[in-house]
Amino acid sequence: MSDYDRIARAISFIVRRVGSQPTLAEIAAHLHMSPFHFQRLFCRWAGVTPKRFLQVLTVERAKQLLGESRPLLDVSDSLGLSSGSRLYDHFVQLEAVTPGEYKTGGAGVTIEYAVHDTPFGKALIATTPRGICQLGFLDDSTIDAHLMRLSNQWPRAVLHENAQRTSAAIRAIFGGEKPVDRPLSLHVSGTNFQISVWKALLQIPPATVASYTQVAAAIGRPRSARAVGLAAGANPAAFLIPCHRVIQQCGKLGGYHWGEIRKHAIHAWETARNE
Fold first, then answer.
1. Full strand arrangement of the beta sheet holding 86-87
2. CA distances (Å), origin 30, targets 24, 50, 59, 264
3. CA angle at residue 8 from 125 to 48, to 5 degrees?
4. Axis crossing angle, helix 192-201 with helix 225-233, rounded to the nearest 10
5. Alpha-carbon distance 267 to 42, whole Å?
6. What is the pLDDT of residues 179-198, one digit of tens each?
7. Structure letter (DSSP) for residue 71
8. Residue 90 pairs with which residues in a beta bridge?
9. Hey, is 94 helix, strand or coil?
């Protein structure tokens, strides 16, 4: 069992009992670990104690974050490429697939992909010469399912497994390495509405949140909160396009394509690195 699998079990246990505030000993016993070894594992993974993580999970804290957030960070006139578009110390630049690229189905494009370990379990990442085109976590889904999704989006592209090439992107995303010469680039395909939502999500800084309504207002579609949720769930680059930072107006986390427990985990992980 990987560290993330153990952490996910602990998070699931905490989430189910957040109202009763389980003790360190109770959580450790659930994992059949001693309190000492569990706390050491948790701190190594999250950078915070289980007690601090428990505080992160509360709905009241989420409501507070929503109350503190600026109107989607005052960036409705500069979505996507402003200095507010940050992932830790990175700029993330999103480029949409051109109409010509869409029409040809990626003919002449080589997509390099591989599966790597991340703090949130194994993930498949795929890149074109212009940027990351897919990032998805593997749980119940298989590698073949991810490759099928790639093939559907890029039917005429050549898929080539190349872990050496993609490992640099994984280290930059999850390891804190800073690209010195250019931003992290995304090269993704979507409708105009989806692209506008994804660019808006890039404006939400780590360890903060926005509501679906706030995102809808930021893109000039204030009555489209539900459509915003669908667009967020359809984003092709998990974690990089931070749909995990969008929550319900009431303070609940809401759904997440990659699982609610992973959404909790990412929130705690980001909070730990921004305190």
1. 86-87, 90-96, 184-188, 131-137, 121-128, 110-118, 158-161
2. 10, 14, 24, 18
3. 95
4. 80
5. 14
6. 444 568 899 989 999 999 99
7. G
8. 87
9. strand
pTM value is 0.80
Question: Two tokens at 86?
Answer: 């940050």
> Each residue of 196-240: pLDDT tens digit?
999 999 888 877 888 899 899 989 999 999 999 999 999 999 999
Q: Beta strand pairing status for 158-161 and 110-118?
A: parallel
Is 243 part of the annotated catalytic residue set?
yes
Q: How big is the CA angle at 159 (ends 195 and 239), to the nearest 5 degrees?
A: 40
**Residue given tokens 């780590």 in the structure block:** 206
Q: 11 Cβ partners below 8 Å, 6+ apart? A: 53, 261, 264, 265, 268
In contact, 254 and 209? CB cutoff 8 Å: no
Residue 179 identity: P
